[in-house]
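Ex. 9. Protein: Transposase family protein.
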Amino acid sequence: MTYEQVKSLKSEDFKRLCGVRPDTFNEMLEVVRSLHRTKQKTGRPGKLSLEDQLLMTLEYWREYRTYFHIGQSWGVNESTAYRIIRKIEDTLTKSAYLLFFG
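Predicted structure tokens for Transposase family protein:
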């Protein structure tokens, strides 16, 4: 399910799906967006929006399915799912580090 499909869910259902409340999701999304803006992208645009990339990462954390299965659900290659999840994890980890130690 893409973010467009789940954003209209009730708060409790949204949390059941991905493990965080919508307001927490939006805070996480702002962190990812702020770092994404500072990087200059070249090449082909990604298939998934930042919202979908974050949702994919939360789905991985919540269910611990393999990258292959996550990729199949989102219509991307296993290696692409891995790269996206690592990028989102690294971004959130870096922002938490800067928040506490920056």
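Check your answer against this statement. The radius of gyration is 14 Å.
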